[in-house]
Write a structure and sequence with these properties.
Elements lengths: L5 H17 L11 H27 L14 H23 L5 H11 L7 H12 L4 H26 L7 H82 L5 H28 L22 H10 L4 E5 L1 H6 L5 H21 L5 E6 L6 E8 L16 H11 L3 E7 L2 E8 L8
Helix pairs in contact: 2-3, 2-5, 3-4, 3-5, 4-5, 4-6, 5-7, 6-7, 7-8, 7-12, 11-12
Length: about 450
């Protein structure tokens, strides 16, 4: 860009920043509660009535002459003062009630009548504060100047003509009115800034929450896709067995009755297993378009019968793991439904992975038990690291627990996790369903 364009761009950017500062975004205030309305109106009424009666009392008292700036008013002057004070005060309260719906109109009318009433003084202040909270200086500056000019005009013409006993110096009126307006503007701008801060915090919180929900949803979809790929291989294997044995029954004429019964039994068992696992997949997956089935199927997935191999591999990698499984339960693991057994294996695998990431130097305790005719329970616990700086920064999605919960839910179980004392626990229950029960 030629150098002679740079000053022009600087001026344009400065003008844009000035316009932004003069007209920041208007943050719509939250609706007032009943208590919010009550205390504002009560404050305006109580202080307004007190101020009005105090001024009237000073001007009708015999000792008013002894107070600097106060004189005793005659009956005609007092009637004019009270009438104007009440009428202007009622207008001030009407403007206060409409300040949020019509801020510019309410602020303008309030500025014109502010110096005519003690009864509506607090109502006028609340209206000006509400206008200032919008932080629109194109509104604030004219209304503030109108308030000051109005005060000077009232002092010069109204008091000087009809109530000369209330007149004072224009310099004193200017300084007092300017100070009063300045205080109201400072309070209003501070309230507006606080509203903007809270609005930004709410917006950030909503964004973070939406981002978190989107990530969790992505994790669920990815986990369901992995479950579907596992089921794909298992179902293909079982359906192929059904096809093979049914073909044998259709084309083999030399089979004995015993062989026919055995083949039919195999077809029935594999059909039941295929239907059971298919029913689980259909109950978990909601969006079949999210599944990537174009690639080759995964290898057959492990089950709990390979738990010793899983623990051994982790120990070979340097992990300290204690496994507690009763011999009776170990003998029954082969009877557990393959889909459930596979999910228990994957949950345990994820727990060991998380412990290796976040507490590599701590011992992991794995317990698996089953009460009589009860669910299969898996408990994994590890001590939290005493010094987090010693833990290497291992990258991760932070959604491992979401994936585990999805797997447990797909089996009809429940999962809970959290910190208790100095330990991190994962507790999962799976319904015990044997292969023969399906």
């Amino acid at each position: 860009m030629p150098p002679h364009y740079q000053p022009l761009n600087f001026l344009q950017n400065a003008a844009a920043r000035l316009r932004s500062a003069m007209s920041p975004p208007i943050i719509k205030p939250a609706p007032l509660t009943v208590w919010g309305h009550v205390w504002r109106w009560t404050l305006a009424l109580v202080i307004g009535v007190f101020a009005s009666f105090m001024i009237i009392g000073l001007h009708v008292s015999d000792s008013s002459e002894e107070i600097p700036g106060f004189v005793r008013l005659d009956d005609r002057a007092m009637a004019i003062f009270i009438t104007v004070d009440v009428i202007a005060g009622i207008i001030a309260f009407v403007c206060m009630g409409l300040r949020r719906k019509f801020p510019r109109t309410a602020g303008t009318i309030s500025a014109l009548t502010a110096s005519l009433t003690a009864f509506g003084s607090i109502a006028n202040m609340i209206t000006l504060i509400s206008v200032a909270a919008r932080r629109q200086w194109r509104e604030i500056v004219p209304i503030s100047l109108l308030w000051i000019v109005s005060a000077l005009a009232v002092e010069q013409y109204y008091f000087g003509t009809y109530l000369p006993g209330l007149s004072s110096s224009l310099l004193g009126v200017l300084s007092s009115t300017t100070g009063l307006v300045g205080v109201a503007l400072a309070i209003g701008v501070a309230i507006g800034s606080r509203r903007e801060t809270l609005a930004n915090q709410r917006s950030q919180l909503m964004f973070l929450q939406e981002t978190r929900e989107a990530r969790e949803q992505e994790a669920r979809v990815a986990e369901r896709a992995r479950i579907a790929r596992e089921m794909h291989d298992v179902l293909a294997h079982r359906i192929s067995l059904v096809s093979l044995h049914s073909g044998a029954l259709a084309y083999r004429t030399d089979l004995t009755p015993e062989q026919v019964r055995e083949t039919a039994q195999l077809i029935r068992d594999n059909s039941h297993q295929a239907l059971s696992e298919l029913r689980q997949v259909l109950g978990v997956l909601r969006d079949p378009n999210s599944l990537d089935m174009d690639g080759p199927p995964d290898a057959p997935q492990p089950t709990l019968t390979m738990i010793n191999s899983l623990i051994g591999d982790a120990q070979a990698a340097g992990a300290s793991i204690t496994l507690n499984v009763t011999p009776e339960l170990a003998d029954q693991l082969d009877n557990l439904l393959d889909a459930t057994s596979r999910n228990v294996y994957r949950v345990l695998q994820e727990c060991l992975t998380n412990a290796r990431k976040h507490a590599p130097a701590e011992t992991v305790s794995v317990s698996m038990y089953r009460p009589t005719d009860g669910p299969l329970t898996l408990e994994v616990a590890n001590a939290l690291p005493t010094n987090e700086n010693e833990v290497p920064a291992v990258p991760g999605s932070g959604l491992g627990l979401v994936g585990m919960a999805e797997r447990v839910r797909s089996s009809g179980g429940m999962l809970s996790s959290g910190k208790i004392g100095g330990l991190f626990f994962v507790f999962a229950e799976f319904p015990w369903i044997e292969k023969d029960d399906k």
